[in-house]
Amino acid sequence: MSGMRFIPYLSFDGNCREAFAFYQRVLGGEIKAMISHGETPIADQVPPDWKDRIINAYLVAEGAELMGADSPPGSAAPTGFSLSIMLDDEARARRVFSALAEGGTIIMPLEPTFWAAMFGMVTDRYGTPWMINCGMVDQNA
To answer: Strands 9-12, 64-70: parallel, antiparallel or unpaired by DSSP?
Structure first.
C-alpha cells in the first residue's frame, strides 16, 4: 500500500487485552495481533509482572484499524483526542454508542445535530473518548 494513513494507537494500564476484546465485540472485525511482552525475543529481560502485558494489539474492522498496548509504568496517558466513528445506520449507531457507554461516561447523548442525523460523545470504561457520527448532513447543499 502506498501513501499515508493514520492509525489510532491507544495506551492502557494493564487492561489492553480486555479492552481490545471489548472493542472487537462492539465494532466487529478481527484482532490481527495480540502480543504480550512475554512472547517477545526479550521476554527474559521483562519483569515477571509484565510478561502478560500487551506490547502490541491490532484490530481491523471493516477496513478501519486500531492499535494499542499497555503503557510502561509511570508513563502519562495521552490527552486531547477522541476516536470518531462514522456510521450510516442509526440502529447500529445506537448499539455502538450504548455498548461503549456501558460502564463508561456519556459526555453528550446520541441525538440529532445540525451536521448529523445523530451524534454523541462517550468515554468508555477504559478511558477512551469516542464520538459517534451517523447520517452526516451535506453542509454544501
So the answer is: parallel
Asked if the model's pLDDT at residue 1 lies above 70, the reply is no
Kindly indicate the confidence band of residue 138, based on its pLDDT and cuts at 50, 70 and 90: low
**For the chain, what are the domain ranges?**
9-70, 83-136
Place of cell 457520527: 133
CB of 88 closer than 8 Å to CB of 134: yes
CATH number of 83-136: 3.30.720.110
Work out the mean pLDDT of the chain and round it to a whole number: 92
Contact between 108 and 119 (Cβ < 8 Å): yes
SS3 content of the chain, % helix, strand, coil (to 5): 25, 40, 40
Give the right CATH number for 9-70 from 3.40.50.2300, 3.40.50.300, 3.10.310.10, 3.10.180.10. 3.10.180.10
Mean pLDDT computed over 99-103: 98
